[in-house]
Design a protein that fits this description.
Blueprint: H1 13-22, E1 27-33, H2 43-56, E2 62-70, E3 73-76
Parallel strand pairs: 1-2
Antiparallel strand pairs: 2-3
Length: 83
């Protein structure tokens, strides 16, 4: 939904909710990459994921997972117990 720079990508929970509503989605999976290759979630990644999940609650849209892709593979927030 957006493009960022090497160290930052703007994410707006309301825009994610708007797009999910446009598509009549009942759930979604968030995905982004870390150009550094390190797939460990940052504190900002964790906080933004929580904010997105909280924004989706009133619309009864569930975030099944948040995946971070990098050269080291993929990290799943669900598998890591972060959601």
């Amino acid at each position: 939904m957006s493009r960022g720079t090497v160290d930052h990508a703007p994410v707006y929970p309301r825009e994610i909710a708007r797009r999910a509503l446009e598509l009549a989605a009942s759930s979604l999976i968030l995905v982004h990459n870390h150009p550094s290759g390190d797939t460990a979630p940052s504190r900002a990644d964790i906080d933004m994921t929580r904010e997105i999940i909280d924004t989706l609650i009133p619309f009864e849209i569930e975030a099944h997972d948040h995946l971070i892709a990098g050269t080291g593979g993929v990290t799943s927030f669900r598998t890591a117990g972060l959601i």
